[in-house]
């Protein structure tokens, strides 16, 4: 029995030696070699730094982050202040433009009306200088020509600026465009509820009614007021 045990131990030792030789030939380390233990120890020491270095590194990282955030806050504050200043400037310029538009919005219209005034003034001067006493016919002709020229110029000015005269005769009564003065009996060819007579013209500016036309509306005889 002792011989068999010794022989078994010897064979086991030979196997371990052969296995060790094979591992070393391939460059592998044995699981329980001193080199393996030393390497594992070194790895552990490199991954786990001493406790006294941890807080200092964390504090340093927090300080760097705080400085970056402070710079970002300062940058955003400056941008915000500039944006507020730009908005105030735009607001002031807009108010100035609105005020100028209110004051000078009718400048072009007034400029055209000056030409109408020139025509009226020249007509008056011409009548007063050239007419002879007692020659009423010549005076009336000059007045008529001057008024005709004045009316044509006014119509041209109105059309240029979008001012349109309402001609509602025969149109259906519309309270948004017409001011009812009275009702009149519907005559021949006149439909009830339509405008029969215009007492005062109405006007529209760019499609918006700025003065209602004073009208008389036709109704059936039994509904006359």
Tell me the Rg in angstroms.
Answer: 54 Å
Mean of all residue-level pLDDT scores: 78
Q: What share of the residues does DSSP label as strand, in percent?
A: 5-15%
Q: What is the makeup of the main sheet?
A: 3 strands, antiparallel
Q: Order of SSEs, N→C?
A: HHHHHEEEEEE
Helical residue percent?
55-70%
The count of strands amounts to 6
Spatial ordering of strands, largest sheet: 1-4-5
Low-confidence stretches: 34-53
The secondary-structure class comes to: alpha+beta
Distance between the termini: 149 Å
Put simply, the count of helices is: 5
Shape: elongated
Subunit structure: Probable component of the PAM complex at least composed of a mitochondrial HSP70 protein, GRPEL1 or GRPEL2, TIMM44, TIMM16/PAM16 and TIMM14/DNAJC19.
InterPro entries: GrpE, GrpE_CC, GrpE_head
Subcellular location: Mitochondrion matrix
Keywords: Acetylation, Chaperone, Coiled coil, Mitochondrion, Transit peptide
């Amino acid at each position: 029995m002792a011989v068999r045990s010794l022989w078994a131990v010897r064979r086991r030792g030979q196997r371990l030696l052969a296995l060790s030789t094979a591992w070393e030939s391939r460059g592998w380390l044995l699981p329980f070699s001193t080199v393996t233990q030393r390497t594992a120890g070194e790895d552990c020491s490199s991954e786990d730094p001493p406790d006294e270095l941890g807080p200092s590194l964390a504090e340093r990282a927090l300080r760097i982050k705080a400085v970056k955030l402070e710079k970002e806050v300062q940058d955003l504050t400056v941008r915000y202040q500039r944006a507020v200043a730009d908005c105030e400037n735009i607001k002031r310029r807009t108010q100035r433009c609105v005020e100028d538009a209110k004051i000078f919005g009718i400048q072009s219209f007034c400029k055209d009306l000056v030409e109408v005034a020139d025509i009226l003034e020249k007509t008056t001067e011409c009548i007063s200088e050239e007419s002879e006493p007692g020659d009423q016919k010549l005076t009336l002709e000059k007045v008529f020509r001057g008024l005709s020229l004045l009316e044509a110029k006014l119509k041209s000015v109105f059309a240029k600026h979008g001012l349109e005269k309402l001609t509602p005769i025969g149109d259906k009564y519309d309270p948004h465009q017409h001011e009812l003065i009275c009702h009149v009996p519907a005559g021949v060819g006149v439909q009830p509820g339509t405008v029969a007579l215009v007492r005062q013209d109405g006007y529209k500016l760019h499609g918006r009614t700025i003065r209602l036309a004073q009208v008389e509306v036709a109704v059936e005889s039994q509904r006359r007021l």
